[in-house]
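ok so I'm stuck.
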Amino acid sequence: MNTASLRRWAWIHKWSSLVCTIFMLLLCLTGLPLIFHHEIGHLLGTEVEAPEMAADTPRVSLDKVMEVAIARHPDLGGMFVSQEADDDRLWFVTLSPTPTSESGFKQVAVDARTGEVLAEPKLDQGFMYIMFSLHVDLFAGLAGKLFLGFMGILLVIAIVSGVVLYGPFMKKLKFGTVRDQRSSRLKWLDLHNLLGIVTLSWALVVGVTGVINTWADLLVKYWQYDQMSEMVAPYKGQAPLTALGSLQKAVDAAIALEPDMKMGFIAFPGTAFTSPHHYGIFMRGTEPLTSRLFKPVLVDAKTGEVTDSRVLPWYLTALLVSQPLHFGDYGGMPMKIIWTLLDLMTIVVLGSGLYLWIVRRKTNEARMEKLIQAHQA
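replied:
not stuck anymore, here's the structure
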């Protein structure tokens, strides 16, 4: 590679890194507690615990679950119902003023075996809410997500350009060399390069999956236009429902259609994941990977009959696969520890890069000052 090409790649690496560094540092710092969100929830007492009962304890009807949840907030209506992938003892019912509301949510945790309300988790306050909001959209909604997505693209460019520069830089040095006997700047330059190449694959995976996650709202909207509109076309022009049929009957119909899958979450009529006339029953697989993937089953909210079901398109599948890869929450505690160590190393890479730029700038300014003084003399 000639000198001109090296300078071009160095310019790309410097400015793509500088523009995104502060925001990437913020994402790394806020991402650390999100890796351990369940453990922190237990520590803070915000995680809902289901009481111990026999494994074969019968479950109450979902109609009963909705009844007790709405009794807590009779001025609200159903929006979503969900369960944790590895715990079917709790139902989390999300209520809202309207199916399309963007605020005013309430969540009620109901024991799936007794139908008793166990807690009302706060969705819009607390330490983890602040960390999650900063990490996802900077409290700025879709605009914040897209901005962070652009910063993620710059990070990927910085990584690629850094790899291009790494080879020529390391020609005269053994891998892992840190010249700690020389100047502080050289020591941090060597550490920056070493940790950068060590975290290369992880940073690319997290960066690319992070960018994909910022497009979630847009991908769902496209899915509504692309597939959902076809699935609900027979109901076009029909009057809105004035009353909903049995939720339990709708879920039973979805389970009968997909007996080898588990219920993931339910979207009520009018929400972004279904139509004004359907319950959207989203079934999930039972294996570690397939449990992250959903298959929507649309059930007529009045009759309780299945009207359509399709495998999600590739772009939503990519989104769902990217989420566990981004947060490292698919391999238990060992994976979380690995993600934490790599996150910490990336913080050092970002911080050292910023330090090197500041030192280099001060050095250049000092040289320029000496030249000016020499010229004046």
